Amino acid sequence: MNYRHHFHAGNFADVLKHALLVQLVRGLQRKDKGFLYLDTHAGRGAYDLAAAAFGDTLTRRPEWPEGIGRLWSLPDLPPALTEYVDMVRAFDRTLGPAGTESVTSIAPQFYPGSPNLVRALARPQDRLALCEKHPEECAALRTELGGAARTGIHEMDGYAALRSMLPPPEKRALVLIDPAFEAQDEFAQIAGGLREALRRFSSGVYAIWYPLTERARVDAFFDELRILSLPPTLVVELSIAGENSSLKLKGCGLVVLNPPWQFDGATQAWLPVLARALAQDAGGGVSQRWLVPE
Predict the structure, then answer these.
(1) Which residue among the candidates 178, 185, 264, 281 is catalytic per the annotation?
(2) What does the pLDDT look like over 70-85, one tens digit per residue?
(3) What is the pTM of this model?
């Protein structure tokens, strides 16, 4: 997977991750007390979807038409998906990173990363810490959100931030761990970072995105997580195709530690709708289960 996310921005994996992220934020906001949103791999925060058609050297097929493009004009979406799509629409109507306002409603031109989505939802008492170790991506993130209130942007390794920024003064946190999975040992790095984070702040809400490319690697990752004496932990997985499909990335998942109250029940109302909308081949679907029960 390419470290510079604009090649994948708005694809089916972003749709699942960001729709769930919006609902996680809403879940924490049921209480008046503020919280820290820590994004360990924040990226640049905003993506020009026109750039998705160009790789480093070759023209490539954009991925967003099979993701946010599928939902863009789909009627009668459940409320949670409507909220997410409306947020993307609102972002698309603003001046994007290229300085050109999107005037078409047929398809999106600009797509928000997780920092922009959470920034749009944040209340005055909520705080954002956005970490990005890639210098060019971090510079773009500063251009995008550098002046936002109660938002810190840090050019650093996000796994180090799990040690240096937890526990937060607010005593509440939502942590998104969303690496590019370029490193062969990425799952091991996540497990190690999470071990330290839980030692320092066990009551935080942690959301970990992962790709579904090899089932055995994911199951081994779950085994590593179980060793950590996890708090209640929910797993949500979306497959856009079955195991026999030729697609390299057949799905993705989100592991959520300490999910907000009733989060699992709420997601069950709209995840099947999302799975049907995003399916690309036979054998796909969505699943939700407790890795560690409540």
Answers:
(1) 178
(2) 999 999 999 999 999 9
(3) 0.94
